[in-house]
Amino acid sequence: MNRKIITGLLIAVVAGFLFVWIASPFVSAQGLIRAARTGDAAGLERYVDFPAFRTSLKDELNARARLEIRERSKGDVGLAALGALIAPSLVSGAVDNFVTPQAIAAMVRSAEKPEPERPVPPADTPAVPKERLHQSWSYRGLNKFAVALTRKDRPDDSLVLLMTRHGLFGWKLSGVDLTPDPME
To answer: What is the dihedral of CA 135, 160, 32, 169, to 10 degrees?
Structure first.
């Protein structure tokens, strides 16, 4: 009888651990969104890895800027080279100066994608009403989780936030994905 109780308890503990381990990014993502909607800067600081987020945002915006420069230069190699040389320093400076808890809150509230010329929306950007915002989630590996925020008035333009595991159950916003397909 004792063996059955111990086995049952062990199974319950393992099942509970797995449930919490799997559900933890959903809880953290909702905490991040709630902190952004309420303007809770301290809450956002708990859910954001600012150095990793800035690095990811710089990489994504620089990639997008290179594509736009290539498209706009229309074969002018000199102009494309000059743009490719200048763009990273402009993006880097803008991201370093403007990525704050308030800016991340505005980005999450509005579900607006960053652009090379405007890395974050203004801090006073209004929130999209909850009923006009669709949220979807997906794992991108054991330690990476994607949260896609899509406005109903712009169904093809999702803001994809990337969260990374910190410890067993903790998750922090560590990046953004600006690729066209939000769940790739």
So the answer is: 100
Q: How far is CA 25 from CA 1, 139, 165, 181, in A?
A: 38, 9, 8, 21
114-129 residue pLDDT tens: 776 676 777 777 888 8
Q: What is the pLDDT of residues 6-33, one digit of tens each?
A: 999 999 999 999 999 999 999 999 999 9
Burial of 52 by CB count in 10 Å (0-12 exposed, 13-18 middle, 19+ buried)? Answer: middle
Count of positions (residues) in the chain: 184
CA distance 59 to 166: 22
Please choose, from the candidates 26, 19, 23, 61, the residue with its C-alpha nearest in 3D space to the C-alpha of residue 47. 26
Nearest to 96 by CA among 76, 115, 72, 120: 120
Q: How far apart (Å, rounded) are the C-alpha atoms in residues 155 and 38?
A: 24
| SS3 assignment for 125-154 | CCCCCHHHEEEEEEECCCCEEEEEEEECCC
Amino acid at 162: L
Task: Give, rounded to a whole angstrom, the gap between the first and last alpha carbons of the chain.
Answer: 50
2's tokens:
């004792």
